[in-house]
Amino acid sequence: MKKIILLGATGSIGIQTADIIREHPEAFSLVGLSAGRNMEKTRELIQEFQPEIVCVQLAEDAQKLQHEFKGILFVHGNKGLIDASTYEADVLVNAVIGSVGLEPTLEAIKLGRTIAIANKETLVTAGHLVMQSAKKYGADILPVDSEHSALFQALNGEKIEQASRLILTASGGSFRDKTRDELAGVTVEDALNHPNWSMGSKITIDSATMLNKGLEVIEAHVLFDFAYDDIDVLLHRESIIHSMVEFQDTSVMAQLGTPDMRVPIQYALSYPDRLPRPAAKRLDLAEIAQLNFKAMDYERFRALKLAFDAGREGGTMTTVLNAANEQAVAMFLNRQIGFLQIEEFIERAMLGHKTIASPDLETILAADSETRKTVENMLK
Ligand code: NDP
Ligand code: MG
Description:
- By secondary structure, the protein is an alpha/beta fold.
- It folds into three domains: 2-143, Rossmann fold, CATH 3.40.50.720; 148-258 and 280-302, no CATH class; 314-379, RNA polymerase sigma factor, region 2, helix turn helix motif (Rna Polymerase Sigma Factor, Chain: A, Orthogonal Bundle).
- The protein has 16 helices and twelve strands.
- The strands form two sheets. The chain has a seven-stranded parallel beta sheet, sandwiched between helices.
- The protein is globular and about 55 Å long.
- Bound molecules: NADPH dihydro-nicotinamide-adenine-dinucleotide phosphate (NDP) and magnesium ion (MG).
């Protein structure tokens, strides 16, 4: 029985992680969870799973819950997130959104805890700190993101130094059939309408700008230690091949499946075992009949190019890329800026930043908050 702590339990990945835990009561138990502000969902999760520790964002919510549920430890805010992530367990699932997930992850790693990581912003903003620390403390970092789970599975049992290329697939997001000119007037609603995946709003916008794939390229570089020249992105609109690894003998291993995040989530929880999923839809290639591929167009999807640039630059530049994007996407969702301004603001933030190489945590946190302010000021 694996004891699980789930950060971001009320989000899209969090709810699907809860589905997996519910499907396998013999294998997993949810001992702790964190939520942001969605108290309705938090109450439901507490009633169903009876965890030992719960973190919410606001102190007043923690207080209210403490009155309702006796015998559960309630904590709050960023400090509470660390209390929850370091609570006694086997696996920490990090499914919060944004770089707020960084410090809780680093603290759990210090305890040698296995980390199932969905929270890609953490790996983009400070991947070197996470991986160095994981090595030092012997903590396993298991990918939840479908592309990285695919790469991880394709590399299983292989010698990583004999792999020559990582090929990440990209569905293209909500606007894949639009030209750049057609992007100028798109609305928040249009952007939130993803063709293949149902996800939280921030990552759905990231998919539309293609910055999500850019964050994933950096995430792949961090997790598998591949040079950026050896990471490719391929447009594949059906989202059936989740990614591929090419080996030095030109053989290519692909991982396939229906677009269902519960598969990679479950694999990260059950690893190195696999568990059945009797209720899940199985892949039927005869029914799908056709898979399509197309070379990535870096002019059309400029945000992806910016991510490669930031990754190659390294140091604090990936922190700036991530923070600028988080700020700009929030502004787009608040209808303060247009869709194309997201990548414009990211590019301006990157141009204005002088990279610091091998940054420590303090330097990263400073670059992150400075960038958010810089991007906010771009509105004025
Ligand atoms: P959601 O927006 O759906 O959920 C985010 C979760 O984080 C919620 O539980 C939310 O709480 C909580 N949260 C938000 N802000 C804070 C904060 N400041 N402090 C503490 N908790 C906070 O996101 P997703 O589930 O879509 O994504 C989670 C992560 O997984 C992201 O990094 C994303 O890139 C990655 N990912 C997601 C995929 C998907 O299919 N959704 C696929 C692959 C990766 P509340 O809602 O209660 O306020
Ligand atoms: Mg992904």
